[in-house]
Amino acid sequence: MGALIPNGNDAEIIDKLNTTFQGAKLAKLRKHIHDNADDLFGSGRKLHRISHRLKIFPTTGNRPKGRWYVFLRDLIGDPNRIQILQAIKDAVGDLNCVGIHFWARFNTKSNPPDYEVEVSPKHPDANGKFWITITLLCDHEIDPNIPGDPSDPPADGGEHGPEHPNLRPVRRKKKAVKKSAKKAIKQAGKKTAKKKR
Amino acid sequence: MLAAIAHRISLRMIFDQPQQAVEQQDRSAARFSQLTRLIAVFESTFSSVHYRLLNSITAINAQASFANGTCVVDIFGGLAFHPAIRHDGLVFMLLHETGHHLSSGCKLPWVQLACECSADRWTTVGGRKALQAKGEDFRLQAALQEIEHAVGSQAQQISSASATRSRCWAMNWQQRKRTLLDGQATVLKTCQISSAITRSQSGGQYGRTDP
Fold first, then answer.
1. Size of interface A-B (CB pairs under 8 A)
2. Is A58–B15 a contact, with Cβ atoms under 8 angstroms apart?
3. Residue B207, in any domain of the structure
């Protein structure tokens, strides 16, 4: 993103991550962690397993899901895995954190490691609310020849609650609108009936 | 200032992008001189933006980002030295990336950069005007043709029905080209890129989809 030719898989994964870690979905995620005592982002957890549990993976193109899982499992590196988990855990555990922005950009260091992670500092607003940004610095793409492994990753130790936490927001407003609309129609009907009498 | 930064030769985001091998690039002195001159014009016209030519990177792309609080535009070698990309394509690309920083239109939902559509609109309106004042210009149709020729099959991808219905043209090259050439690049209030991203669940996708 921010590129002349946006990459579909990058855009899809960034979009899904950003949607999951803000607003109603973030609230549901916090509720899942609280209600089930599920240390979802504990330091021993695996990113590809979390990705599977939260259904965050690309869906189009060249073996997207399998390659994404292999990227998170084997390519991203353990220090980065730990740093990402810690940043997410801190953000999700702090109710003043409004959400997490995820981003990826090219790593311009002259001799960088494969991948690096940058976590932005917190900048609370007047109400103490803040966002954080987790940026993946990339030096190369996932090798297109990697076969990938789309199978369901095995459960991490200490998982509690459903395998796939329900993050779907509850849709109440529509019903309320329908009910009030029905009421209005009924009342209008009654009024016209009275007038006729 | 033109910063030519050497890196390993391969590319650079998470998933695959079109590449142009170094041996198939135009690395002539004339091309270097053309790029140096253009970047100098851009740096003097849009002084808050820093331009970097990452000449050994083979991706046919460019990216706007921030580095230590500075607005940066990275131009990858695969695009900068692509023989199909000429003056018009280079200027369009530089304006589009500059537009991510300078357009006052709507922002991407994930980062404080103008969205793809805002950057495109700024390219054809505000950015172009500023550049014209410096005696520089480009032909839109030629620019789009050059880019389409360079990125090849990626530009031919067919989007899903939901993506085509979206007012955002960022993820659909044909829609993007049509919108720009027809002068229909309007100002969107909210970035709609989420609805334009093709997902296999949405009923259609480009190319082959494997697990």
1. 161
2. yes
3. no
Give domain limits for chain A.
Answer: 8-171
Q: Which of residues 68-107 of A touch B (CB under 8 A)?
A: 71, 101-107
In the stretch 22-41 of chain A, residues with CB closer than 8 A to chain B read: none
Residue B131 belongs to domain spanning: 3-199
The reply to whether B206 falls in a domain is no
- C-alpha A65/C-alpha A56 separation (Å) is 9
State the total domains in chain B: 1
In tens digits, chain B (211 residues) has pLDDT values of 333 333 333 334 677 778 899 999 999 999 999 999 999 999 999 999 999 998 888 889 999 988 878 999 999 999 999 999 999 999 999 999 999 999 999 999 888 899 999 999 999 999 999 999 999 999 999 999 999 999 876 555 544 455 556 788 888 888 899 999 999 888 788 888 888 887 654 433 333 345 5
Contact of A50 with A41, CB cutoff 8 Å: yes
Q: What is the ipTM of this complex?
A: 0.76
A60, A117, A138: best to mutate for the B interface, most B CBs within 10 A: A60
Does residue B179 lie in a domain region?
A: yes
The C-alpha atoms of residue B99 and residue B102 are separated, in whole angstroms, by 5
Find residues 11-40 of chain B whose CB sits inside 8 Å of chain A.
11-18
